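Re-run with default settings, no changes from the original entry. Doing this only to confirm the output is reproducible before filing.
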Amino acid sequence: MCMKSWQALIDLEQSKDYFQALDAKVAGARAKGIQVFPPSEEVFEAFKKTPFDKVKVVILGQDPYHGKGQAHGLCFSVSNGIKIPPSLANIYKELADDIEGFSVPEQGDLRAWADQGILLLNTVLTVEEGKAHSHAKWGWERFTDEVLIALNERDAPVIFVLWGAHAIKKGKVITASQHTILQGPHPSPLSAYRGFFGCKHFSAINALLIKQGEKTIDWQV
């Protein structure tokens, strides 16, 4: 089935039993007073910022930041005024090494990337405060598989950037030959030195976009 919009996909998935169970679990946690990030109105922010037919690149993270005020629905991004998390600091470090003229920003809001056609997606879309991966296996993985399957069915080429084991595992649904997968270690301080640094994914993305006749990404934020 060929999707025309993210809202159509979200509506379809929300009608399924697995999503209703997931939704009830997340709502139940919030109702008990447990801090769940991001806030409910920002859970689908990545889809609002980057419409289905505008997606040129997907950057796939793991699950949202679990510190207060950090997660706002776009992977690796934090709102202006929030301290830059270590993974994003490492992304900036690689960008400075890879993209000529890139200067390391003092803020971590990546919405300018989303506006240029980068879907900033996590494999899991909610998390409990202070507990990384706490909403893993709740059903989000099935939902984000459906997102990737819908993009895989698109005729227009998409560049999928998979960092870390969780993201790489999901690459199995990307089967159409017009798409490209770039993969490597997660930019977290635990794994960045295993090959994230030096991956040159940002210049590779722009080289692929030029080849596809698309506008390159301005990485400066």
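The mean pLDDT is 96. The longest strand covers residues 57-61.
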